[in-house]
């Protein structure tokens, strides 16, 4: 899908675009969502720069993600997608900055539509008059979105912490451990993806601020890049803090699972010890020997039952006295 946005008084405007027809005047942003081969060729002819394939975009070495080719500066970052789903993922998005227009190539939906809808409203930022301005606006929206994700992760981690360490009366509050472990794992996965996205975005910002082949960003662009770099660095520190907290919760949760298992084992051990003496008494008087004086006693049966009850009570009282129960 090819989506073009042109600068108009008051903001951006989505304009009609079709392969084979010239783009309208004032186009500053071309958004390619799962582009076809025909759309790739059309954009290449329009802006004079090649469009990378999906296989080229997912390569992780910096030389394949940050480079200059002809008139375009290529920057690829991994952005979070499908955050509201149970399985969020990272998707590679390539930003091609050319003098004519900014081209974004993506194969997923990292909430670019939200930025586009705000940019198309009246009284939008005047910086959206150039491809560089649109690129910085996109980066700013991505940073805000990542910050929101980390805030949600932090809030949910606090709720998990309260649930895990909650106490009801004298006994620990118990919740199915499987559910809690799954929730901790999902928060840890989302946080790690947010941090990985910030790392790639930090590299892109540093690359954009550098002078390459005699071409350097304008002073206004450099001025806007500095606070973005500080924001990214701050968010990475916060993501590291959340990662440490999630790791602590996971260790605490596993420790509680071990304690619960120990309680179960201890209960069975105590029950075995309590019922061992009565079993011994019953075994002795269950022997079929003729020369057993107790067999002729009138009160032999209640006496044996009394021994069995007493032999079970005494170990229990001893365990309670030693505070093993």
TrEMBL record:
Bilayer topology: Multi-pass membrane protein
GO molecular function terms noted in the UniProt entry: cobalt ion transmembrane transporter activity; magnesium ion transmembrane transporter activity; nickel cation transmembrane transporter activity
Catalytic activity: Mg(2+)(in) = Mg(2+)(out)
Membrane-crossing residue ranges in chain numbering: 264-287, 299-319
GO cellular component, one term: plasma membrane
Keyword Transmembrane helix included in the entry's annotation: yes
Top-rank taxon, per record: Bacteria
Keyword vocabulary terms for this entry: Cell inner membrane, Cell membrane, Ion transport, Magnesium, Membrane, Transmembrane, Transmembrane helix, Transport
Signal sequence bounds: none
UniProt entry tagged with the keyword Repeat: no
Family the UniProt entry places it in: Belongs to the CorA metal ion transporter (MIT) (TC 1.A.35) family.
UniProt cross-references to PANTHER family, sorted A to Z: MAGNESIUM TRANSPORT PROTEIN CORA (PTHR47685)
Protein name (database record): Magnesium transport protein CorA
Organism of origin: Chenggangzhangella methanolivorans
């Amino acid at each position: 899908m090819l989506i073009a946005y042109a600068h108009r008084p008051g903001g951006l405007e989505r304009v009609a675009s079709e392969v084979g027809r010239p783009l309208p005047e004032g186009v500053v942003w071309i958004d390619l969502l799962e582009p076809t081969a025909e759309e790739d060729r059309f954009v290449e002819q329009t802006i004079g720069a090649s469009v990378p394939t999906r296989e080229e975009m997912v390569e992780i070495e910096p030389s394949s993600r940050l480079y200059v080719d002809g008139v375009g500066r290529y920057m690829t970052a991994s952005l979070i997608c499908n955050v509201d789903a149970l399985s969020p993922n990272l998707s590679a998005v390539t930003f091609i900055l050319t003098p004519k227009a900014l081209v974004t190539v993506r194969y997923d939906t990292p909430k670019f539509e939200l930025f586009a809808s705000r940019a198309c409203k009246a009284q939008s930022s005047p910086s959206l008059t150039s491809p560089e301005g649109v690129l910085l606006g996109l980066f700013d929206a991505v940073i805000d979105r990542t910050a929101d994700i980390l805030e949600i992760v932090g809030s949910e981690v606090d709720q998990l912490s309260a649930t895990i360490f909650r106490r009801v009366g004298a006994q620990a509050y118990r919740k199915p451990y499987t559910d809690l472990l799954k929730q901790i794992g999902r928060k840890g996965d989302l946080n790690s993806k947010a941090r990985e996205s910030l790392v790639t975005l930090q590299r892109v910002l540093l690359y954009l601020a550098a002078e390459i082949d005699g071409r350097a960003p304008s002073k206004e662009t450099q001025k806007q890049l500095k606070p973005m770099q500080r924001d990214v660095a701050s968010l990475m520190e916060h993501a590291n803090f959340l990662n440490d907290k999630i790791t602590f919760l996971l260790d605490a949760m596993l420790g509680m699972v071990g304690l619960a298992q120990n309680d179960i084992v201890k209960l069975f051990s105590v029950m075995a010890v309590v019922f061992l003496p009565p079993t011994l008494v019953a075994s002795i008087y269950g022997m079929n020997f003729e020369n057993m004086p107790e067999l002729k006693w009138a009160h032999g049966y209640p006496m044996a039952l009394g021994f069995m009850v007493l032999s079970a009570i005494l170990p229990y009282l001893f365990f309670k006295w030693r505070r093993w129960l």
